[in-house]
Specification:
Blueprint lengths: L7 H13 L2 H8 L3 H15 L4 E4 L2 E4 L1 H29 L1 E7 L1 H8 L3 H7 L3 E7 L27 E6 L7 E13 L22 E4 L11 H7 L12 E2 L2 H9 L4 E4 L5 H5 L11 E11 L7 H14 L7
Parallel strand pairs: 3-4, 3-5, 7-8, 7-9
Antiparallel strand pairs: 1-2, 5-10, 6-9, 6-10
Helix pairs in contact: 1-2, 1-3, 1-4, 2-3
């Protein structure tokens, strides 16, 4: 059980008077009369049963009891002031909750988010990556989450990879994607450098199983057929259930991944990945930003949505 404390006003008056060694200066700081400070100090002395001050030549001298406690009391008031400031800061910070497919969150959004944070320093962005934002795992009309503005929703903005059919949401298309082989520049060297699609037979193929061919994606068989390459065993190589994992393997030089340059734009711009061939095959799905209708979203959410749409239109390599 917490111990009872003296009245806070009495403690505050004592601390100010002890710090200034003056009743008058304490009264000026706390915007009260000297008589009020004296009254509060007397109230505290009566409560504690000890004398706290001695008057010497119109000044104040602390008694040993007061001297022993005033530093700790000052620390306590500093801690209280810090706690109040923290509560105020937390209340004043705006938040935007963003949900996205893992690869979009990790490879496209994360490298760019500092731009929004710099432009809107009073808004915290909470990003959650979730595979449920990929359409082929459920009907295209089902977002898998509550609608924004309906109360109890999971996110303010959902970034969805799919068909674009999302009733009840405002839908803004961010960009289409196309599949092409990507690899580390190291694979352009060695005994079998990647000069033409035929050279893929000498390299490990990395597979992104996020969106299969049956679900509207592009697999290695489709791409190789379009490139006019035959008799390459597409069953070999490592398989990944997230595109970001397949891209990371390609970055390490583990093989060649069939993926989307739009998502790997940062790695391509910095030379960590290359697209050795010109052939790109567009997939049936695109990336969309889902949010509430204009009248139902907070200004902070609208600001993030506008920033997101503008970023999606920024040319590759401009970051």
């Amino acid at each position: 059980m917490p111990r009872p404390l003296p009245p806070l006003n009495a403690l505050r008056a004592f601390e100010a008077a002890a710090r200034h060694r003056s009743i008058r200066r304490a009264a000026l700081e706390l915007h009260v009369t000297p008589a009020a400070i004296s009254q509060q100090v007397k109230l505290l002395e009566d409560y504690l049963g000890v004398q706290l001050f001695q008057r010497v030549n119109r000044g104040l001298t602390l008694t040993p009891e007061a001297e022993a406690s005033v530093a700790r009391l000052r620390e306590g008031f500093d801690a209280l002031a810090g706690a109040v400031e923290l509560m105020h800061a937390q209340h004043s910070v705006e938040r935007v909750r963003v949900g996205a497919a893992p690869t979009f969150a990790g490879k496209w959004l994360a490298p760019r988010i500092s731009g929004f944070c710099s432009a809107f320093p009073d808004t915290d962005v909470r990003i959650a990556a979730d595979a449920r934002f990929i359409d082929p795992r459920q009907p295209a009309s089902d977002t898998g989450f509550s609608r924004p503005g309906a109360g109890g929703e999971d996110f303010d903005i959902a970034i969805r990879f799919g068909s674009g059919a999302y009733p009840g949401w405002r839908v803004d298309k961010l960009f289409d994607v196309a599949a092409t082989p990507l690899c580390s520049p190291r694979l352009m060297q060695g005994p079998h450098p990647l000069r033409s699609p035929e050279d893929l037979r000498h390299h490990i193929l990395l597979h992104d199983d996020t969106v299969s061919f049956e679900q509207g994606g592009i697999d290695w068989n489709t791409w190789l057929k379009a490139a006019g390459v035959r008799k390459i065993d597409t069953h070999r190589g490592a398989r990944f259930n997230h595109a970001v994992l397949a891209l990371e393997a390609a970055l390490d030089g583990a093989g060649v991944v069939l993926s989307y340059p739009q998502l790997a734009a940062t790695d391509l711009a910095r030379g960590r990945l290359i697209a050795p061939f010109d052939l790109e095959l567009r997939v049936d799905f695109a990336y969309y930003a889902l949010s509430g209708e204009d009248g139902s979203v907070q200004p902070r959410v609208a600001a993030f949505r506008d920033w997101l749409i503008a970023e999606a239109g920024t040319p590759t390599g401009a970051h």
